[in-house]
Structure formats: structure tokens, C-alpha cells
Amino acid sequence: MSATAPTAASSAGNAPTGLEDTLAAAAGAAGPFGALPPARRAAMLRAVADVLDADADALVELAGAESHLPRGRLRAELVRTTFQLRLFASLLDDGGYLGITIDEPDQAWPTGPRPALRRMLVPVGPVLVFAASNFPFAFSVAGGDTAAALAAGCPVLLKAHPGHPRLSRRTGRLVADALGAAGAPAGTFAIVEGDEAGRAALVDPRVRAAAFTGSARVGRLLFDLAAGRPDPIPFYGELGSTNPAFVTPAAAATRGAEIWAGYVESFTLGAGQFCTKPGLLVAPANTAEQALVAALAGRAGAPLLNERIADGYRAGLATLTGHPGVRVLVGGSAEPQPAPGAAPGPVPPSLVTTTAGELLRDRAVLAAEVFGPVSVLVTYTDPGELVAVARALDGQLTATVHAEDRDPADAALAAELLRELTERAGRVIFNGWPTGVSVTPAMTHGGPYPATTSLFTSVGTTSIARFLRPVTYQGLPDALLPEPLRDANPWNLPRQVNRAGQPAG
Known about the structure:
7-stranded mixed β-sheet, 5-stranded parallel β-sheet, 15 helices
């Protein structure tokens, strides 16, 4: 499909038939949509949430048919999706996200006379969002990236995921119609389909930022495209993570049964198709093996999302089980590829084990993410190996420590681990599990590369910062300033005035 070939597309108040029209409409909407008072955009986000809730039964049914995920899980995910739309609306109601800062003229400023300076955050412009397969609502058409970009005042071009095309089109129509009915400019939202159309949009100069959730291979290709443009743009890619969990000797001795049970529940949740699945459990040798085998015995599997995911899982599992330093504890083989047209069968969980020494010798294979229901138990005999493993890992979305903080020696070991893991993870967890990413202002769903290509979160209200940029206005008369910066504060937004010292005069 060429850049100008027809694509499935829809936009608020308009229905362009090709990618060129879609891009032009988004560029035309950027100015008027970004200039709307935050309260107007908040009302639009709530309108989108309302129409999705009203169509919940049909959406969940369609999502189940295309993703093979259970209806209960999908309904809860749709609740999460509309909640985060309304959460961003509340952020807009507050207005503090604009970071409005006013420095009045000060002739006595220590570095020299200070001019009149007024600073705020403004939308970056049209944003291209690549939808994910494993969350057909919360990280797809109306998911967190879309919500954050619209809240920031940026038109959104949504590259639909091929794993749920009918759901994407239906959701896209609902979003576009709701925005249009609420008064959004034509071009505020559109769906594009096809890999070639996605690549063409990414390098188009009218697109000013992109967000992606998916594999490291595809994400890195897109990141390089974004960086290689004549005008490089931010590419906020969530690429992959093994989310290691570390168990100290005292924790294994005190709460071993509880920890092993929690680990099994966490890594098998959703058939292991969460980006926060704990793919590594680092635990004392001869403490967890029997309990984990017993906990997984007879545990039913579930179908994977689609054949592309299943192919990747089979390849990753085969690489793990074929490694000479790996021993299979449970499973170890994926279900064969189904016949054409046949429904995918359940894929049972697998557990393999290796030693800390083996992992340190070949972490490129043994610490690589395998998306699906498999995890690696890494055993150690010397507590110092815990820190060595932590130090050897690449960037992660999450890292977990299970320890006994009332035991002085264990607390000291935990503190050293936490220091190392803080350098490598966006969310550090103590005596818990990483699956379950709360949508809240304090959440960080991100981490150093290769977990992501940025240091921003993609979940929670602070994710809006990805789609804003600061502008300082110097010496402008009041009438020429943007409305939020004028003396009368017509939008009634919170502002910081002369925050580095006392007001001038």
C-alpha cells in the first residue's frame, strides 16, 4: 500500500479516503484543537468514554472473537479504558499540567536584569499511535496513548493492530463520532491500517511524535525511522522486558510457599501475554523447584492472541529449551500450529531453570523476553549472585525484590539490590508482583532501553508530558499572549509567579 493509496480511515467530522487526506486533516486540526481551553477537551474525552461504555456489550463480544481473550477480562479492560479517559479529563479540569510559570521583570536579578518571561506547555501537533495486540482496549484505539495525546491537544492518527481489525474499526468510528459531536475539529482522530501506511505516516513531516507498544524488533525499526527523518521526532516505544524478581534467602525461608504461589499466578496471568510478566525468578537453589512444579501441575493453558504471537512464542521457547544450560521443569513444548481456519488451542505454561552462573555467561539468550506462558527460574548458592545478576541486566519495565526487611542482613542485601534495580527499571516493587499496572498519577510504566526508547511513562496522567513541549514568551504585551498566560487568567488555571524569589517590586 503506497502513502497515497486508500486506507480504512475515519476522522471527527470528516471521512478522508486516503492517507494523504488523513494527514492533511490532522495537520489542519492541530491548531484549533490545541487552542481549545482544557475544559472543552475534558468534555470531549468524557464523551468518548460515555459512548464506549454504552456500546460495551458489542465491543466486548467483538474483542473476544478476535483476540481469544475471556469476556470477563475484556470487560474489565474496557472499564480501565474509559476510566483513564475520564482521569485525563480530570487532569484537564485542574489545568496544572500546563506548568504555567510567570517571571516578572526584575532589574536586581543576580545574573543580570530579568525580562518579562511567561512559560507554558503547548501541544506538539499530530501524534501517530501504534496500537498493541495484547490489550485490545487499554493499549489500542482508545487506549492510554490516544487519551494522553488528545488530552494534550494533539490530533491522533491511530495505526490499527492487525490482530483485531474489526474491533479497531468499530472503536474508531465511536471515538471519531463522539469527538465530532462534542465539537472537535475535523481531523482530530483517524484510523489508518496497514504496515506500509504506518511507516509512511511515521516519516511524514506533519506527524510530530509517535507512540508504540510491541516487540523490540519492530519497535526498533520504527524508532530508527523516526530518528532518521530530516526532522527527527520523539518515538515513545515500549519494546520489551523480562521483569526480574529476586528472592533473598530469608524471604525464601520465611515466606517461600507464598512467594512461589504468587509467582506462578503472575507469570501465567493472561497466558503470559503481559508486558509486565515476570520472566525471571532468581531464588536460592533447592527451595522453589518442587513447589513450582506442583503449583503448575495440571494448570490449564489458554489460547494465544494470534498466530503471529504463537509463532514468536514457539521460537522463543525452543531457543530456551535447546540451551545446554537450561533444564525443563514443566512443559517445554508449545502446541503445534493449528490447521488453516481452525481455532487456536490452549497453550500450557512452561517453566525452565538455569543457574545464576549460566545466566551471567549467556544473558543474551537466558535473560531475553519470551512473550507467552513461560518463565525462567534462576537459582543461586551465594547471595552475592543476586546482585551480580541484577547488575548484568538491561533496562526493564519492572523489577521486584522479595526480602525480610526486619532481618538486618537481609535488609542490607535488599537495599543493595534496590540500588542496582533503580538504575535499570521504571518501577521497583517490594514483596509484590508486577502484573497489574495501576492507572494513577504516581505510576511509571517505562524504563531504560530496551524496555522503552524514552524515560517517560506510558500509563498514568504524567504520560501526557510526551505530547507537550515548553514555550517561553518574552516581553509580549498582554493582548498578544496566549490566553492562559494573560494577566486576567481567563481559563482560571493554576500558575506559579516568581517562584525562585519574592515578587519583583
